[in-house]
Design a protein that fits this description.
Elements lengths: L18 H15 L3 H28 L1 H8 L10 H15 L4 H27 L7 H4 L6 H16 L7 H32 L13 H18 L5 H5 L1 H32 L11 H21 L6 H33 L1
Helix pairs in contact: 1-2, 1-4, 1-12, 1-13, 2-4, 4-5, 4-7, 5-7, 7-8, 7-9, 8-9, 9-11, 9-12, 11-12, 12-13
Length: 347
């Protein structure tokens, strides 16, 4: 009789494993923005432990299970998850800037995120584009593809946050942040049109509507945050000052789009779990749903500050607790999932 597979099997490490770091980091920053610094710092410390731990596990997988890693990199359904390797260190870097006041560490993390972004964008994506065999959209396309956008926008956010700490290179750094924001915004338009076609015009089973579809909203939320950071930095760059009306208009467009997605995703979730009776049990993909909730809180706080929209204040005041509750439930599920794996090992 075969022994059950352990949850500690490094060869089965999900490509999007760093969604845990993304979700923990943004909920920490959302809590800080809502006036809960103790909770924010506790999650910051946890994230500072989680990131090197997960990076170590990924390195072990690369060194010892490369034959199982390569198929993930060439799988249209799984490969986009690797863009959490970009967003994870960037969100942690934002914590080091805003909570830890350690710009040097944040700069190193930005370099890590940029290195992964270059490798994934110009090595992995061309391999997927030129693959001889490709799955139909029903199998290969999901909200996970928008992690490409999230990773790109995360680079913009952290770059703009570091610009004031690097006064000699402030203007070029802000230009780089603007460029990443524009690239990420354009990629969203390309991908979301395909995703919208997939969910509206192609058959959609309840099991197909996985939690990563929440990234439909999360990608717009982080684009909003990146735009808000650029608006806040406009006084440091002549180019950003000239583009200020454009930046404000696009940032509000992104926020409105993110807001539009929330009731839509809730309705689809109700259809999945209440009408089609898909059980609500722990799945690693739920971290990709926690991240958008935290990001929506953070981005709404940001546009309230830079565009002066105080009447939106109730939204982040409520959403921060939704994000904290979602993170807590998912973290408990993760611990229980791992604990069950330990018990299986011992029997």
């Amino acid at each position: 009789m075969n022994a059950p597979r352990s949850h500690f099997d490094v060869s089965q490490l999900p490509p999007n494993i760093f969604a845990i770091v993304m979700a923990t980091g943004i909920v920490s920053l959302a809590a800080n923005g809502a006036g809960y610094p103790a909770l924010a710092n506790a999650l910051f410390v946890l994230n500072a432990v989680l990131y090197p731990l997960l990076l170590g596990l990924l390195l072990i997988r690369f060194l010892t299970h490369r034959k199982k890693l390569i198929p993930d990199l060439t799988d249209h359904a799984k490969a986009p998850g690797f863009f959490t390797l970009v967003a994870g260190p960037c969100v942690l870097g934002s914590q080091f800037v805003l909570l830890g006041d350690m710009p040097i560490v944040a700069t190193v993390l930005l370099g890590v995120g940029l290195a992964f972004w270059l490798a994934l964008t110009y090595l992995m994506l061309p391999a997927l584009i030129t693959a001889g065999s490709k799955p139909p959209p029903e199998r290969g396309l999901s909200g996970a593809w928008l992690l490409v956008v999230v990773g790109t926008q995360a680079l913009s956010v952290l770059t703009s946050q570091l610009a004031p700490r690097l006064p000699g290179a402030g203007e070029p750094i802000l230009f780089a942040a603007l460029t990443f924001w524009l690239i990420g915004s354009m990629i969203y338009l390309w991908i979301i049109s395909q995703i919208f076609h997939r969910i509206v015009f192609l058959p959609l089973a309840a099991n197909d509507l996985t939690p990563p579809y929440w990234i439909n909203m999360g990608a717009m939320a982080i684009a909003t945050l990146a735009g808000a950071r650029l608006i806040g930095m406009a006084g440091r760059s002549g180019l950003l000052t000239e583009l200020l009306p454009f930046l404000k208009g696009m940032t509000l467009l992104f926020w409105a789009t993110a807001t539009w997605w929330i009731p839509m995703l809730l309705a689809l979730g109700a259809w999945r779990h209440l009408s089609r009776h898909v059980p609500l049990v722990y799945d690693h993909g739920y971290w990709a749903a926690v991240f958008p909730l935290g990001m929506y809180t953070a981005c709404t706080n940001a546009i309230i500050d830079v565009i002066n929209l105080p009447y939106l204040g109730l939204i982040p005041a409520v959403f921060v607790w939704i994000a904290i509750a979602a993170w807590s439930a998912t973290f408990v599920g993760l611990i229980a999932h791992v604990f069950r794996g330990q018990l299986i090992n011992r029997t």
